[in-house]
Design a protein that fits this description.
By secondary structure, the chain is mainly alpha-helical. α1 packs parallel to α4 and α5 packs across α6.
């Protein structure tokens, strides 16, 4: 039910933040310990001499996928303590927090390998290549497992709940069969919509 999904999502969030924290800490240690190949520099984020607007725009579609949870927040407004203002605030906070975390992670990764030479032939797995540079294979595997669980399990749970609540609302509005509009008092979930 909804309570179980909330507990699972909190555990997932904590696990993902721990993995990100491990990456950042070990990344900073690596950068400080390898000044000949790594450096803290703003040109690692934006280098006017190498900036390519077309390349930036092609990356936008990938960056948008980092914000996949907005639909879940919008469809679960009836679960909010303040349905009128809560979801809107949650989406804004989520966007800002995700942006800061994403930029910090990318900044550290780029500072570790400013030239990009270590992952030039494996750009699809560049982050994992950088993670392997920091500590060896264990951090790359930890990051890969974290991403797989986040996108495969935790996102699926959130999306299933979102879709179930959309179906529940549609059933109560007469668009879908009435049996899908049944709310379980025990789990606080639209049980028939979840099963369907």
């Amino acid at each position: 039910g909804m309570k179980t999904a909330m507990v699972v999502n909190k555990i997932a969030l904590i696990a993902q933040l721990v993995i990100l924290g491990i990456f950042v800490v070990f990344g900073v240690v690596y950068i400080v310990g390898h000044p000949e190949t790594s450096s803290f520099s703003l040109t690692n984020v934006v280098n006017p001499a190498k900036f390519d607007f077309g390349g930036t725009m092609s990356a936008v579609s990938l960056a948008v996928m980092s914000y996949v949870g907005f639909g879940a927040i919008a469809t679960l407004t009836q679960e909010a303590d303040d349905p009128k203002h809560g979801p809107g605030r949650a989406m804004m906070v989520m966007a800002l927090v995700l942006c800061v975390l994403y930029v910090a992670q990318c900044f550290i990764a780029t500072c570790i390998d400013p030239t990009g030479a270590n992952f030039a032939n494996n750009t699809d797995n560049a982050f994992y290549v950088v993670a392997r540079m920091i500590t060896g294979p264990w951090l790359a595997i930890l990051c890969a497992v974290g991403v797989a669980l986040a996108q495969g399990v935790f996102t699926a749970i959130a999306q299933q709940n979102s879709i179930a609540f959309v179906m529940f609302t549609m059933a109560n509005g007469g668009t879908l069969p009435k049996f899908m509009g049944k709310m379980s008092k025990r789990t606080n979930s639209p049980i028939n919509a979840v099963i369907f």
